[in-house]
Amino acid sequence: MANAPPLEAALIRPGEGSAVPALRVSESPGLGDSPRSPSDRGTKLHCHTAVRYAAPSNTTRGKFLRTLPVLFVLCLVSCVVLIYVALHILPLLGFAPCVDGDLDCVRDSGAFSRGLGELFALLILLTLQMTSFSLAVFVSPGGVPDLSAEEEERLLLHQPAMDHHCPWIDNCVGWGNHKYFMLAVIYSSVLSVYVAATMFESVARAVNSPSETFAVLFWLLFGETLDIFLGIVVTGFLGFHLYLVVKGMTTIEFCEKQFRHYPAYAAEQQSMWTRGAWINFNDTFGYNPLLWFLPIDNRPGNGMHFVPQHHFRSPVIAQNMGVGSSGGKEL
Questions:
Q1: Structure pTM?
Q2: In this structure, are residues 170 and 69 in contact, taking their beta carbons and an 8 Å threshold?
Q3: Other C-beta atoms lying within 10 Å of the C-beta of residue 109
Q4: What is the distance, to the nearest Å, from the Cα of residue 251 to the centroid of all Cα atoms in its chain?
Q5: Residue 136 to residue 2: CA distance in whole angstroms
Q6: What are the sequence ranges of the domains in the chain?
Q7: pLDDT tens digits, residue range 175-184?
Q8: Which among 97, 216, 265, 311 counts the fewest CB atoms within 10 Å?
Q9: Coiled-coil regions in this chain (predicted)?
Q10: Best CA proximity match to 15, nearest among 311, 328, 319, 307
């Protein structure tokens, strides 16, 4: 069996008396979904953003509205990077006046080399961030494969599960793009901290210079403030998703534990799929440390098969399906 992925589906076979180490299922119908009917078995999982109150998602207007969050993210990143390069990097390299109106900073023997180093680091971080973000947007999160007639006959429940839907990438986050999504968030957080820390030098010089123009001062303060705000938001978001990774949980499973009215399930403090923080981390980022933080998917498995952490009876599935220990079937 391959290792547990963030996105799986379930094949729960009737008449078996123990947990089935086959395909993972969300503990209850996620976010208003319902278990698939027999006629739906074997179909692919298609994930689209629902622009429910604006336009159908398959229309031109709906597709345009779905792209707005993605374009908004790209605009924010572009704004911060342009301000950083124009008002911090270029003056250090001597291609533009320093923020105090003269070229004193360029006369510093270390200014050029420092600017070159900061530009090189920016390009690396920006490339990794944009590559990961693009892959998270365009790579399919995965879905339930086509099944043979024999497999369909043995299915009692066939419900795809996913991590969550993210409007900021206009895509669902699942097994296929989970690593790319995590790397995009990681590099967004690192890039925000890096820009805020290095650009503070130019901001401080502009604030303390009485001859500085209002336009330069405004854009430097605007860029620094925007970057710090984005860094706080993205870093908090990153902390939450790293918590889910080490716990072996998906966002939907976390929300089910917090908001669903299943006392028995909510009482389970540990996910049935967790196998320890170290293995959970490797299940998401791969088992080669050299590739952990590169947008290269080297994880084993296909996102469907896994081994549960322990013998587990799901009270939610038992409640939904009307089975339990009395029926001789444990889930």
A1: 0.71
A2: yes
A3: 8
A4: 10
A5: 23
A6: 72-327
A7: 888 899 999 9
A8: 311
A9: none
A10: 328
